[in-house]
From TrEMBL:
This is betaine-aldehyde dehydrogenase. The active site is at E300. Keywords: NAD, Oxidoreductase, Peroxisome. Its main location: other. It comes from Triticum aestivum (Wheat). InterPro entries: Ald_DH/histidinol_DH (IPR016161), Ald_DH_C (IPR016163), Ald_DH_CS_CYS (IPR016160), Ald_DH_CS_GLU (IPR029510), Ald_DH_N (IPR016162), Aldehyde_DH_dom (IPR015590). GO terms for molecular function: betaine-aldehyde dehydrogenase (NAD+) activity. The gene is LOC123189460.
Length: 544
């Protein structure tokens, strides 16, 4: 068996190049499935943020903005497509550095002659999906198959926003219809400026891409701060940007701890907007910092989403599979996880029996192992937090119907069995708070209105699902669930074309789709007075 590739030792990606953090600090990278230290990442501080913001600002302003911010959307689209590797790069139109041009020419020749692929360091996302997925797996503990799907989504997201960047050109100068003739008005959509993008660890590169791709498509320049718990693939994105010759400073990547590297971005006077995904607690801190400068923020925060299952479902297993997918995928470390399961009383017992059978059938293993469907959670801290949630539920009187512990066959790594908790009351912590682990809590209902009341019994409002063979009932419930996303007869499909985001304490603003692009655009009204005569409000003074 070939030895696994080495974990690259990278610096901070600032101004198109790599530099060590000013204070020289680094953070160890721990593979959560083995507990081994496998590398380290730079620990940036305010000094580095200063450099990154300065680089982003000069890239935004370079040549009056004509190099990036005011370049055509079609120009920016070429870079986004190049990151994904959708189309062969036209070196000339991208103004690549000569040495990079050579790489691409060599690659073309290699392909023509059937010679081996380019070295990893010279490949883009689609060309190194399996490597990036491997890196994501050893960094985060997620099953390899999930990481591969994530990387496919990353490439698709860059391509999608390349399309929207191109379409943006046709939307400029949109005329506004006015009820008078002396004025003519049109609208320009302009990039907001330098944006700070602060992201979590559950989908490290994908969550970053949901922000980087639309921000760059809009013409913003950015400072990305991924989570200190999983930054490796985001640093590889820096290498890809370097490889394709993205203009220096358009994307800067700063790794480090939240208070040291994230907080200075949120409070920086030259960062024009913050887009944040993470916990509600950090979201509040970021909003407070940004408020001091009346800086716009968009927040994608936590959730405690319900999945309501009615007694009319003909195929119980089909519904059970969605319940399993909804809460155990990515070890339940999903903001939209449907972690509150509401079962109609007539099917509850049968459903729970099957749920336990399906849970027992999930392959829990080293996430690199073939067929793994439940890996480890991200860290020791998260492992202990989840275990505490389970013990508190038990002490508050709930029943651990299945799981609740480390799988017996895995002595090392931060693994937790898929856990099903019943006899839950609405005052219990397990009902009210986000666990962010493979833990589902269950309540039984009698009527549709009781189901809706329970579904909405949360401070969060990210997502919700309903499973029933009565589609009219599903549509009815979709309207009254207080959340930004509702799934009918499924849970968790995430589509780059459709809006994503929450209500209540799950945050505000929408990512993905055209809404994701709007997050980074500022709307400018341009109005022209077009009559030859004076406007005539004031009396013209005499000429004497
Ligand atoms: P977190 O809030 O601990 O950290 C998120 C990011 O914020 C990290 O990069 C962290 O370093 C940074 N950070 C921490 N303190 C900071 C500070 N004071 N100032 C600036 N930045 C700071 O969240 P997490 O543990 O990484 O992620 C899990 C949370 O993310 C869960 O609550 C989950 O629901 C949420 N999430 C939401 C979505 C969504 O789309 N709504 C998606 C994924 C994750």
């Amino acid at each position: 068996m070939a030895a696994p590739p080495a974990i690259p030792r990278r610096g901070l990606f600032i101004g198109g190049g790599w530099r060590e953090p000013t204070l020289g600090r680094r953070i160890p990278v721990i593979n959560p499935a083995t507990e081994d230290t496998i590398g380290d990442i730079p620990a940036a501080t305010a000094e580095d943020v200063e450099l990154a913001v300065a680089a982003a600002r000069s890239a935004f302003l370079l040549d009056g903005g004509s190099r990036w911010a005011r370049a055509s959307g079609a120009t920016r689209a070429k870079y986004l497509n190049a990151i994904a590797a959708k189309v062969p790069i036209s070196c000339v139109s991208l103004n690549l550095r000569p040495e990079v041009r050579c790489i691409h020419v060599h690659r073309k020749v290699r392909r023509m002659h059937g010679v081996a692929e380019a070295p990893l360091s010279h490949r883009r996302i689609k060309e190194k999906i399996s490597y990036l997925a491997w890196l994501e797996t050893v960094d985060s503990g997620k099953p390899k198959d999930e990481a591969v799907a994530d990387m496919d989504d990353v490439a698709a997201c860059f391509e999608f926003y390349a399309g929207l960047a191109e379409a943006l050109d046709g939307k400029q100068h949109a005329p506004i219809s006015l009820p008078m003739e002396e004025f003519k008005t049109y609208v320009l959509k302009e990039p907001i400026g330098v944006v700070g993008l602060i992201t979590p660890w559950n989908y490290p590169l994908l969550m970053a891409t949901w922000k980087v791709a639309p921000a760059l498509a809009a013409g913003c320049t950015a400072v990305l701060k991924p989570s200190e718990l999983a930054s490796l693939t985001c640093l590889e994105l820096g290498a890809i940007c370097e490889e394709i010759g993205l203009p220096s400073g358009v994307l800067n990547i700063i790794t480090g701890l939240g208070p040291d590297a994230g907080a200075p971005i949120a409070s920086h006077p030259h960062v024009d907007k913050i887009a944040f995904t993470g916990s509600t607690a950090t979201g509040k801190t970021i909003m407070t910092a940004a408020a001091q400068m009346v800086k716009p923020v968009s927040l994608e925060l936590g959730g405690k989403s319900p999945l309501v299952i009615f007694d009319d479902v003909a195929d119980i297993d089909k519904a059970v599979e969605w319940a399993v997918f909804g809460c155990f995928f990515n070890s339940g470390q999903v903001c939209s996880a449907t972690s509150r399961l509401l079962l109609h009383e007539k099917i509850a017992e049968r459903f729970l029996d099957r749920l336990v059978e399906w849970a027992k059938n999930i392959k829990i293993s080293d996430p690199l192992e073939e067929g793994c469907r439940l890996g480890s959670v991200i860290s020791k801290g998260q492992y202990e937090k989840i275990k505490k949630f389970i013990s508190t539920a038990r002490s508050e009187g709930a029943t651990i119907l299945h799981g609740g512990d480390r799988p017996k066959h895995l002595g090392k790594g931060f693994f937790i069995e898929p856990t099903i908790i019943t006899d839950v009351s609405t005052s219990m912590q397990i009902w009210r708070e986000e666990v962010f682990g493979p833990v589902i809590c269950v309540k039984v209902f009698k009527t549709e209105s009781e189901a809706v009341e329970l579904a909405n019994d949360t401070h969060y409002g990210l997502a919700g699902g309903v499973i029933s063979d009565d589609l009219q009932r599903c549509e009815r419930i979709a309207k009254v669930i207080h959340s930004g996303i509702v799934w009918i007869n499924c849970s968790q499909p995430t589509l780059v074309q459709a809006p994503w985001g929450g209500n209540k304490r799950s945050g505000f603003g929408r990512e993905l789709g055209e809404w994701g692009l709007e997050n980074y655009l500022s709307v400018k009204q341009v109005t022209r007075y077009c009559k030859d005569e004076l406007y005539g409000w004031y009396q013209r003074p005499s000429k004497l």
